[in-house]
Write a structure and sequence with these properties.
The protein has no helices and 24 strands. With 290 residues, it is mainly β. It folds into 3 domains: 83 residues, no CATH class; 97 residues, Immunoglobulin-like; 96 residues, Immunoglobulin-like (Sandwich). The strands form 9 sheets. It has a 4-stranded mixed β-sheet with strand order 10-11-8-15, with no helix packed on it. A 4-stranded mixed β-sheet has the order 19-20-17-23, with no helix packed on it. A 3-stranded antiparallel β-sheet has the order 1-4-6, with no helix packed on it. The protein is rod-shaped. The model has no long low-confidence stretch (mean pLDDT 88).
Length: 290
């Protein structure tokens, strides 16, 4: 034992633990007027005690009181291999109140695309209500988000903005706690919904074709049946969506990227964004890609 009682000498023969018949190590120290600060070694600072993952620990501090025995546990030594658990358990500590109770939660990342719903990446709801997922630590060597099975139903921040995908750092802990603030596809009672009104379509737009709005909010799916605009029979069409969807970029198509909207000359147009706050967003389409 090395500490403030022996000038922090890591190999002091006067402070060697003795082992009893049960395999436990003990040492007796005289009480001093000042508190006790110490570390345990095997004779040098290259062999000091660490946490179970091999990380150095702070000095152990003890202010004398009525207790006459300290019980310690050494999990690892600095010169020995680190003991990472091969498994990591993810615990969703908080979910939005409007989360459907029947929906399954998934961890979605670079290992597989949205919509595949592999069961090995599905969270299990425990008796205490928390959702947990245990998986191999090396599998989480990437970026991930929590979703309810589709890109449209992934987690977003409190303001409804897309979060930067989570990155699990290889730390000592075998449990990671997650908080999900909001779902992209579920709306709060006070959330602003706007009407996107296409007042003008290209003259040769086939009447039988559906007009779709697509953007980051649905993973840029150009033919998402959830986002078909309704025609009014007079040449215009509209859809009601959350205002926040228009902040992150969007375009119009007729069902695929070959029929995406174009500029006046039929060429490429940049993604649209809307920064206003009107209840009705009036737009027009100049041309189609085909």
């Amino acid at each position: 034992m090395a500490g403030n009682f022996n000038d922090w000498n890591p190999g002091d023969d006067g402070f060697i633990f003795r082992r009893d018949a049960k395999g436990k190590y003990m040492i007796s120290l005289p009480r001093k007027k000042y508190g006790l600060s110490f570390k345990i070694t095997r004779g040098s600072w290259w062999t000091e005690f660490t946490d179970k993952c091999g990380h150095k620990m702070n000095n152990q501090e003890y202010n004398y009181d009525e207790i006459d025995t300290l019980y310690l546990k050494i999990e690892n030594w600095l010169d020995l291999p680190k003991h990472y658990s091969q498994d990591l358990t993810l615990v969703i500590n908080q979910l939005p109140k409007n989360t459907p109770g029947t929906d399954v939660l998934y961890l979605i990342g670079h290992e597989f695309p949205f919509g595949n719903k592999p069961e090995k990446y599905a969270f299990t709801q425990q008796e205490n209500g928390l959702h947990t997922l245990t998986m191999r630590r090396k599998t989480l060597d990437g970026f991930y988000v929590v979703c309810r099975g589709t890109h449209r139903s992934q987690e977003v921040d409190e303001g409804g903005r897309y979060i930067f995908p989570r990155h699990f750092v290889q730390e000592c802990s075998d449990t990671v706690f997650l908080n999900v603030a909001k779902w992209n596809d579920l709306f709060e009672p006070d959330e602003k919904i706007v009407t996107v009104l296409l007042e003008q379509l290209p003259k040769r737009t086939p009447e039988k074709d559906n007009i779709y709005i697509t953007g980051k909010f649905n993973g840029w799916d150009p033919g998402d049946a959830n986002y078909i605009l309704k025609r009014d029979g007079k040449g215009a069409c509209s859809i009601q969506i959350p205002l926040r969807y228009l902040r992150s970029g969007f375009k119009f198509t007729r069902g695929d990227w070959n029929t995406v909207e174009g500029n006046f000359f039929g060429g490429f147009v940049e993604n649209r964004t809307y920064t206003g706050n009107e209840n009705v967003v009036k737009l027009k389409i100049e041309s189609w890609g085909d």
